């Protein structure tokens, strides 16, 4: 019961950290396909698919929001990835989103399988002639990423509930609490980003998950970063390095971009580089 109480307490702090989407976020222009996926009658998974301009198959990132958060709060980070040529699928999870009628932080344990269900649906539609996603997603270049509880979901999707289609993972202010650090399957490079000022999920918890990863990996420390703002607010001094490093990580891992790998290596001493 102690561990459950601890994560619920963290969830209450997260409740204070995330809020309603702003009008600016609601009206931000983007190319979006909205799909009502579900994994059973009680698990609706409405998903926004942000598509880069132009035709052709794009690498895909499945992004998982934090506890009590809204997908729209990550609009600026998602936009950076889309501009760089990545399709981004952002589901709203039924019992951990900020508008949920019934919140349950322990529904975390169901979310890695939700990621798999969303991927199944996306790839089926991308293979169906006439669908808005037809021919737009490269099934061989897929990553998952998430913030806070979404980062924990990402750890689960590459661990205990491994989806073999995932070639990379991004964990923003996340950990392996509750989901465990049971990484398995083919190597999937992982990038962890965590702030020393995070009082919700401490950097030590993020480091513990990172240390357990047996694959190519990197850990970026934000010297004064908090739990929320570096990943949501362009006004935060750390947002730019988060946006640039995650984009270059995706370029390197999913596109084989050697220049992006050089830029990652040049970040400096706060970047622990085990990517190989």
TrEMBL record:
<dbReference type="InterPro" id="IPR029058">
    <property type="entry name" value="AB_hydrolase_fold"/>
</dbReference>
<keyword id="KW-0732">Signal</keyword>
<dbReference type="GO" id="GO:0052689">
    <property type="term" value="F:carboxylic ester hydrolase activity"/>
</dbReference>
<comment type="similarity">
    <text>Belongs to the AB hydrolase superfamily.</text>
</comment>
<feature type="signal peptide">
    <location>
        <begin position="1"/>
        <end position="24"/>
    </location>
</feature>
<dbReference type="Pfam" id="PF07224">
    <property type="entry name" value="Chlorophyllase"/>
</dbReference>
<protein>
    <recommendedName>
        <fullName>Alpha/beta hydrolase family protein</fullName>
    </recommendedName>
</protein>
<dbReference type="InterPro" id="IPR017395">
    <property type="entry name" value="Chlorophyllase-like"/>
</dbReference>
<dbReference type="InterPro" id="IPR050261">
    <property type="entry name" value="FrsA_esterase"/>
</dbReference>
<keyword id="KW-0378">Hydrolase</keyword>
């Amino acid at each position: 019961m102690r561990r459950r109480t601890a994560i619920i307490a963290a969830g209450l702090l997260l409740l204070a950290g995330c809020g309603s989407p702003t009008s600016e976020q609601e009206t931000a222009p983007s190319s979006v396909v909205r799909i009502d996926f579900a994994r059973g009658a009680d698990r609706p998974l409405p998903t926004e698919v942000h598509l880069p301009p132009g035709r052709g198959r794009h690498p895909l990132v499945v992004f998982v929001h934090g506890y009590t958060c809204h997908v729209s709060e990550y609009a600026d980070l998602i936009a950076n990835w889309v501009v760089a040529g990545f399709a981004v699928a952002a589901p709203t999870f039924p019992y951990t989103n900020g508008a949920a009628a019934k919140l349950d932080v322990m529904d975390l344990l169901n979310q890695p399988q939700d990621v798999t269900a969303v991927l199944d649906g996306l790839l089926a539609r991308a293979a169906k002639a006439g669908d808005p996603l037809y021919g737009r997603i490269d099934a061989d270049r897929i990553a998952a990423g998430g913030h806070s509880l979404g980062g924990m979901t990402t750890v689960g999707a590459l661990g205990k509930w491994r989806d073999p289609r995932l070639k990379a993972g991004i964990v923003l202010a996340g950990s392996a609490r509750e989901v465990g650090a049971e990484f398995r399957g083919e190597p999937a490079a992982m990038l962890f980003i965590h702030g020393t000022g995070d009082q919700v999920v401490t950097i030590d918890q993020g480091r513990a998950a990172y240390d357990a990863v047996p694959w190519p990996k990197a850990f970026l420390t934000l010297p004064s970063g908090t739990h929320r703002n570096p990943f949501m607010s362009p006004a935060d001094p750390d947002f730019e390095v988060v946006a640039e490093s995650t984009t270059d990580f995706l370029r390197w891992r999913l596109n084989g971009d050697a220049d992006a790998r050089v830029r990652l290596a040049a970040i400096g001493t706060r970047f622990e580089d085990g990517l190989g």
